[in-house]
Amino acid sequence: MTSMQLNRKLLNRSGFYKGFLILVIFILLIVVSCTSSENRDDESPVYKDKNAPIESRVRDLIGRMTIEEKIYQLTQVAFGKNMNINNIGGEMDKIPPEMGSIIYVNQDPAVRNALQKKAIEDSRLGIPILFANDIIHGFKTIYPISLGQACSWNPEIVKQACAVAAKESRSSGIDWTFSPMVDVARDPRWGRVAEGYGEDPYANAVFSIASVQGYQGDDLGDENTIAACLKHYVGYGASEGGRDYVYTEISKQTLWDTYLPPFEAGVNAGAATIMSGFHDISGVPASANYYTLTEVLKEKWGFNGFVVSDWNSVKQLRSQGVAGSDREATLKAITAGVDMDMADGLYLENVAELIKDGSLPVARLDDAVSRVLRLKFQLALFDRPYVLEVPEEERYLLPEYLLVAEKLAEESTVLLKNEHKTLPISKKASLAIIGPMAKEQENLLGSWSAHGEAKDVISIYEAMQQEFPDSKIIYAKGCDFEGIDKTGFSEALNVARKAEIVVLCLGEKNSWSGENASRSTISLPEIQEDLLTELSRLNKPIVLLLTNGRPLELGRIEPHCQSIVEMWQPGVVGGNPVAGIISGRINPSGKLAMTFPFATGQIPIYYNMRQQGRPRSGKYQDITTEPLFEFTHGLSYTSFKYGELKADKDTITKTEKLVIDISVSNIGDRDGAEVVHWFVTDPVSTVSRPVKELRYFEKQMIRAGQANVFRFEIDPMRDLSYVDELGNRMLESGEYYISVNNKKVKISLID
Ligand code: NOJ
């Protein structure tokens, strides 16, 4: 009898309500019998049924697992270096088929498939391995470092670049990237500023969403998407003195104001995982922090993905002074909310014992395992455990991938200075290209460049030759990146004498930024500054091209340059975008996402400091208190004129919306893109707010001679509120100022 027939019969015999009740019970019985592992034979378990709901598959699988199998799911080990499938036996044999996750630094899908086959075929339950790696700004098609990306103020192109990285990664066997890093960072001595989106919480939040969407797409089960990981939860960017791995002092208020927002935005965008940091947050290490990991992330925000520790950060709870043994470190981390243990193997060693003696409830173990399994199901790893083994030339560096990388690098480049319109340069000018960065390829990739290769990078020199086919271009290295050898100076001076314009290529090597790459000063090494000073004595125009992974101290050298272009570490397209900017083929549109101090001694210096008691005092006596190039600074070859801010109302209630417009005219003679940044100032509130806070930005192309309208629709709860130290969102009535450039308008919020 079909359920329809039964339904009809029941209705006829006992009336509608009775029939309805029985029908509900009947359906429930069917659902229960479908989802209960006891009622399915081992030949076709629910967890292997791709049509069953993910939560049923997770529950079914958990019900079949031993404690040991569960603990393996919470363990991640590294595998790699050996690129040859024929020689991997030894290493592969060391990895048990039950392993939960592998950091896979290889790029061969065949090796990955071989590891996966072992898991599927040799483990009792055939649970697939989750393969991860640090795909930070590209897999093979390396695009600009994140700090550069943020200067594009174009989340859409960042999303596209992440989607390219996802395709290259998944087709090479990577299911999960440890990216994006959304640590707000305000100390450029910290090498990891290169990996984040600058000093502002809102900007980090916007790029957090863009990269999560780019990596994950609409469906993690798609073969072109990978899982994202927001890191390093939370406050790692506050490392004292810019030194890596050290203590951070963060009040709860600052945690909510500055460090949590990009993570919350990424979680709301559906980020699959989160990495807990190495650092200590005011006495409680990030990887043992119940408040941030469980109370905020899992309970308040309802995050149902999983938390992976950073490399050895569970074991490091011992050196951080909160655990006296590996066992205690394990208990603290897993109890606080760390689900997967990266690299140190402590969960594997200790969790079974902790369960046995009752220190760790099985429920917490099951919760952690469910989170990991959920992602494996979402990624369709159970249903499609292997990746197609297509040739490299079909996987990497495809023309459409390179186009995205090039566009992003163009938009990331910031024209910091352009005195007397030195740039763009006429296509016929004779040029001296000088400096240690001029012929570099490797050092244009930046830190964490995954499988990017120097041979694929176009050097500045090569790009300039292509861009200026009719110019006489001469080259001299001048000096090395550091050291005291000035013997190359005379050649550099001779070369410069013969040219009309000096294009000087200075900067930082890849290894000077990124993890564990702190510097006590952010100025360039003396030898590079000296080269510039010597060249400036020739009185030729100097165009300084900078390639670096952090804001630099340029106070001493800026006056000697007519133009300065910040190209960051642009990735594989290398010198192309900057050459296009120098020739005028590209009109620069990048703006700084992080302040350039005048001197290292000003650090910390960022635009959104809290208000102070004596705003006109407290200045440095020896140097300026102002930065050299402020947050959002960036020039164009055209000029923009801002009209007046026009609000459609001056008073609104907390549930009303208000629209503010500003017209921006392109009064120059060429088309150009302009970014409008909208700031909010809340002069009086229960908790003192920063002098101004970025709440919205938009980039638009404006044709020469035309005017575009930029619009900010204010939703009070989203744009005027803040979160107090207990995590409560506060929206207070009173006056607010909305500002753009040097224009501002006052609005009132009433109850
Ligand atoms: C340590 C770094 O802090 C983290 O960013 C990275 O993802 C892991 N190592 C894995 O390589």
Verbal overview:
By secondary structure, the chain is an alpha/beta fold. Among the domains are: 11-43; 402-598, Rossmann fold; 640-750, Sandwich (Immunoglobulin-like), CATH 2.60.40. Helix content is 32%, strand content 17%. It is built from 22 helices and 27 strands. The strands form 7 sheets. A 6-stranded mixed beta sheet has the order 11-16-15-14-12-13, sandwiched between helices. A hairpin with a 2-residue loop joins strand 7 and strand 8. Helix 2 (54-64) packs across helix 15 (362-378) and helix 6 crosses helix 17. Residues 1-39 have low confidence and may be disordered. 1-deoxynojirimycin binds at residues 134, 178, 231, 310-311, 515.
Short synopsis of the structure:
32% of the residues lie in helices and 17% in strands. With 751 residues, it is α/β, with parallel strands linked by helices.
What is the secondary structure topology, with strand pairs?
Layout: H1 3-35, H2 54-64, H3 67-73, E1 75-79, H4 89-94, E2 101-104, H5 109-122, E3 130-133, H6 146-152, H7 155-170, E4 176-177, H8 201-216, E5 229-233, H9 252-259, H10 261-268, E6 273-276, E7 280-281, E8 284-285, H11 290-300, E9 306-308, H12 316-319, H13 326-336, E10 341-342, H14 346-356, H15 362-378, H16 392-395, H17 399-412, E11 414-418, E12 431-434, H18 460-467, E13 473-476, H19 489-497, E14 501-507, H20 526-536, E15 542-547, E16 563-566, H21 576-583, E17 640-642, E18 646-647, E19 651-653, E20 658-666, E21 672-681, E22 693-702, E23 707-714, H22 716-719, E24 722-723, E25 729-730, E26 734-740, E27 743-750
Helix pairs in contact: 2-15, 3-14, 6-17, 7-8, 7-17, 8-10, 13-14, 17-21, 18-21
Bound molecules: 1-deoxynojirimycin.
